[in-house]
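User: Mind token order:
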Amino acid sequence: MNNKISIALGALTCAFLAACGAPVTVPATATVAPANVVATNTPVRPTATAAPVASSVPAPTVAPTAPPLPKPTSTVVPSPLLGTWRLVESSKDGKSATGVESTLVFTTDRASGNGGCNQFNGAYTANDDKLKISPLASTRMACAGPAMSQETWYLQSLQTATRYEIDGLTLRIYFGDGKPVLTLTRQSASAKPQPTAAPTLVGSAWRLVESSKDGKSAPNVESTIRFDEKSVSGKGGCNYFGGGYTVTGDKIQFGNLASTLMACIANETMTQEAWYLKSLNTVTRYEMSGNTLKIYFDGGKHVLTFAQK
């Protein structure tokens, strides 16, 4: 009510001054809130803030983890000794006699060959340039001329080998106190054609299972045979043996087999060895099927059966 009266008085005053020619100054008027608006003590809620917009920059990509590298595998390097060698000379005993051929054949773990008259066979080890040849077993034939003399010093030299050198096609084996040397040359396959074993026999090793004549191999007694390129070796049960052999088709023949001369306590071991070696000295042919080898002996009437090792 008081506001309305004040407004009316103000209006009359302005009209009077205007009539008298005086300038009129309009006072600032207070803004009146609408009558229907009721002031309250309720606090004003802040306006909701919009969620920040996601950055358009892509997140860094994590590189995939590389798979682990495979472990390097060891490679077995063939020994340079492997193969056939022919004696040229000995710095101690002289040159190889004319018409006498002394040879040496290295396989992965055996040393064999011809001394000049007899076949020989034994084990060997080679580490770096060190060489050791075990006591050699040989056949026991007698030959005329210089062959026997050369064979004697040749085999003695081999069994005292200490180290070796290879230079191209030349092999030098130092023996004794390491000063004297055997000089050999690598022999090519075509140098001197000789009967060779069937490829399936070479490098194979077998264990005796039974004899159709003498029965099964005794328990705890192992009789074996192994074929290398030109030699055969094995164990009778107590003693080791070795010698040469030839194969033509399915026909097989062993040379005179030499063996060590140990005596074993078990009677069954010596008994089996006796008939086993006797059977091998009369073999005639063989058959191979899978992991089984059959060697026929005694005119083909009986058979030795072996299982592959």
User: Anything to note?
Assistant: The radius of gyration is 53 Å. The CA atoms of residues 25 and 48 lie 44 Å apart.
